[in-house]
Amino acid sequence: MRKVKTTLLLIVLLALVISCSGFDKNTYKALNSARITYTQTMSALSDYQKQGKLTNEQAKKILEVANIFYMTYLTAEAGYQIYHKDPNPTTEQAMTQLLNQVALELSRLLAVYNQVFPPAPAPIKPSTAIK
């Protein structure tokens, strides 16, 4: 559960990072946040497998989506290296498209993960106003 909360926190941070400072720095931070989120998700998956809380079918389902995300991420990393060496409107636009694809694939990965391991609902505190 802690890793799921960490993952969700990282997604929020990813959104906040994009709204700060220059494009180059934002791109670096966004890719780094995506990498950390992926790593935490895969670590949680490994933990669940070791604990016997994950079937082979569930693992396969998550890993299929995880592999697509990871290939997209690696493509964006390569694109970032090109952009970083030659920042111009064309490479910035291409990098923006790559970042959008990374965000899309990351959201798909987390959606599949949350289908297999739904987050626990937040506890509801009894209202003191109802009597």
Can you describe this structure?
With 131 residues, this protein is mostly helical. The protein has one domain (2-116): Four Helix Bundle (Hemerythrin (Met), subunit A), CATH 1.20.120. It is built from 4 helices and no strands. The protein has helices at residues 2-18, 23-50, 56-85, 89-116. α1 (2-18) runs antiparallel to α2 and α2 (23-50) runs parallel beside α4. The chain is elongated and about 50 Å long.
Give the count of structural domains.
Answer: 1
Percent of residues in helical segments?
A: over 70%
The beta-strand count equals 0
pLDDT < 50 stretches: none
The string of secondary-structure elements, in order, is HHHH
| Measured distance between first and last alpha carbons | 34 Å
Question: What coarse outline follows from CA principal-axis ratios?
Answer: elongated
Largest sheet: none
Radius of gyration: 18 Å
Beta content comes to under 5%
On the 0-100 scale, what is the average pLDDT? 84
Oligomer: single chain
| Architecture per CATH nomenclature, i.e. the level-2 architecture | Up-down Bundle
CATH class: Mainly Alpha
Q: If you consult CATH, what is the topology? A: Four Helix Bundle (Hemerythrin (Met), subunit A)
Note the total helix count. Answer: 4
Topology:
Blueprint: H1 2-18, H2 23-50, H3 56-85, H4 89-116
Helix pairs in contact: 1-2, 2-3, 2-4, 3-4
Properties at a glance:
131 residues; Four Helix Bundle (Hemerythrin (Met), subunit A); 79% helix; mainly alpha; single chain; elongated
Brief characterization of the structure:
With 131 residues, the protein is mainly α. It has a single domain, classed as Four Helix Bundle (Hemerythrin (Met), subunit A) (Up-down Bundle), CATH 1.20.120.
